[in-house]
Amino acid sequence: MIRSILFTTGLLASSSIYALDYFPNRGAYNVEVKSYQEQLFGDVFRQQYDFSCGSAAVASLVTYHYDLETSENDVFKYMFKHGNKEKIEKQGFSMLDMKNYLISIGLDANGYNIPLDKFSKIRIPAITIVNFDGYMHFVVIKGMNSSQVILGDPSRGTVVMPIDDFKTYYKGSVLLVKNQAVKGRESFITAENYNVYTPSPSSEAIARDSLATFSITLPGANDY
Fold first, then answer.
1. Dist. CA 167–CA 117, nearest whole Å
2. Cα–Cα distances in Å, from 17 out to 11, 35, 158?
3. Shortest CA distance to 91 belongs to which of 81, 82, 101, 80?
4. Is there a contact between 98 and 154 (Cβ–Cβ < 8 Å)?
5. pLDDT for 117-169, tens place per residue?
6. Structural domains of the chain, ranges and CATH numbers in brackets
7. What is the annotated signal peptide range for this record (predicted)?
8. CA–CA dist 86, 14 (Å, integer)
9. What residues contact residue 13 under an 8 Å CB cut-off, 6+ apart?
10. 174 pairs with which residues across the strands?
C-alpha cells in the first residue's frame, strides 16, 4: 500500500513539472505546463547582470526575430571585448556597442530617432532605451497593435503595455536592422488583444463526449 502511494505521488509530482496527462476511456491527452516565469521569458533573454540589459536585448532580437541563435553571454563577451571597458563597467553598453555587434554578424544596423507614431508604421522589431523606475534600460519592441506595445524586457520578460503609457517612457531612439526587413516584419507582433499567456487548447483538442465518460470509467471502491 505504501509503495502504491509513493508511486502514485511520484507520478503526480513529475507530471506537474512537465505536463498534465489525462487518460479517459476514449483517448489520451497531454497538455504541456509552463510556469509563470517560463511564459514571461519564453522569447526574451533574462539579463544576468545589473548592467547587461543591452546584451540580453541584442540576444533576444537576434535569436527570436532574425533566427540567428546566440546567447546573452556570447553577445556580452563580444561587446565588452570590443567596447570601452571602463565606460561599460560604469554605464553599461551603448547603442554603438550593439550596432557594432549586429554588423559583425551580418546584420546592417543603425540608430535612428523616430516618433512612436511613425515607428508603428515601420513594423519591424527594434531595440530602444526607456526610463523605467528612474534608470535607463534597453528593451526590444517586439510588436505593436492599435492600442498596445509588446516589449521584450530583459528584467521583466514580455510586457504588454498600452501605447499611451509607453509614450511616457519612450525617448525616440531606436536601433533597427535594415537588411532583413522581410524577416523583421514577419516576426513583428501585430495581433490585436495580444496575450503573453497561451490559452488552453483543451476546448479544441478534447472531445466533449470523452469527458462525459470520465466519471463512468472511474474505478469503483472495490475495483482496485
1. 10
2. 10, 9, 22
3. 80
4. no
5. 999 999 999 999 998 878 889 999 999 999 999 999 998 899 999 999 999 99
6. 1-33 (no CATH), 36-187 (3.90.70.10)
7. 1-19
8. 47
9. none
10. 112, 128
CA distance 37 to 34: 8
Query: Which pLDDT tens digit goes with each residue over 53-90?
Result: 999 999 999 999 999 999 999 999 999 999 999 999 88
Q: Which three cell numbers stand for residue 39?
A: 511564459
Cβ–Cβ under 8 Å, residues 127 and 61: yes
Angle of the 72-82 helix axis to the 53-66 helix axis, nearest 10: 120
Tell me which of 40, 53, 98, 130 is the catalytic residue.
53
Say whether 53 is catalytic: yes
Grid cell at residue 27: 483517448
| SS3 (DSSP) at 61 | helix
Contact status, residue 142 vs residue 152, Cβ threshold 8 Å: yes
Q: Which amino acid is at 124?
A: I
Q: Which three cell numbers stand for residue 108?
A: 546592417
Report the alpha-carbon distance of residue 105 to residue 220 in Å, rounded: 64
Report residue 200 as a C-alpha cell.
Answer: 488552453
